[in-house]
Structure formats: C-alpha cells, structure tokens
Specification:
Nucleotidyltransferase, domain 5; 3 helices; about 120 residues
Length: about 120
C-alpha cells in the first residue's frame, strides 16, 4: 500500500487538475493505492500553508499523512530535497486531470519532467 498526494484547487477529487505550484495549492488530494494497483481510499486535505509557508512545512504536513509520493507540476530544488528528507519521492513537471495522471502512474509510464513556467504562477491556474 502506498499513499500519494496531488496538489489541487477545486476539491473535485480525481476529476480535479494538478495545481501549478504545490506549496500554494488550496488542497491536496491523497490517494491510497493497494499493491495490486487499486484505489483503496481518497481524501482531500486543505493546505493550511497555502498563503504563506516556511521551508519544510508542506513536506511535514504530507509526511504526517504517511504520503510517500508527491506528483506535482512546479517545485523548486530545495523543496524536492525537503520532501526527500521526509521520505517522500517527488514526480515533477506533471499536468492534467488527476485521474488521467494516476492512470499513467499505475501503468508505469509517468516520469518526472523539467518544468519552467513562462510567467509567474497564479492562483487562478
């Protein structure tokens, strides 16, 4: 069993899209996957650090929920290091609807990509 987290904005569960910047996402969708690749549980937690956060607060929030994988779009090197120190693997540069990304992950085809936003991120994305 493994738990993975996705930064989201609209509390739509698997139909939500991955938020552009993990640390400022309004919420995280946490998906628990069985060893035989079936969804066991889905939970949404609000990101209490959405407006402002210090380094390490979001990794701690997710580590306390036993998350082992973060699938996100935009994330910096220091944040990746802090997630890894918390025992959380980061798959970055990923966009799209969570259920489509999850399907790609479960098929073994999802890989980290470089992601450089063309302009400063916005909460409306």
């Amino acid at each position: 069993m493994v738990k993975m987290a996705f930064p989201i904005s609209n509390h739509k569960g698997l139909n939500d899209h991955i938020f552009e910047h993990f640390g400022h996402a309004p919420a995280f969708l946490i998906v628990e996957i069985s060893e035989d690749k079936k969804v066991l549980n889905i939970d949404i937690i609000d990101n209490i650090y959405q407006e402002t956060h210090s380094p390490g607060e979001v990794p701690s929030l997710l580590a306390n929920k036993n998350v082992k994988i973060l699938i996100c779009k935009g994330i910096g090197r220091r944040a990746i290091e802090l997630f890894e120190q918390s025992g959380i693997k980061v798959i970055k540069g990923i966009s799209g609807r969570v259920k489509d990304v999850l399907k790609e992950y479960l098929s073994g085809k999802l890989e980290s990509k470089d992601y450089w936003p063309r302009q400063k991120w916005s909460k409306n994305r």
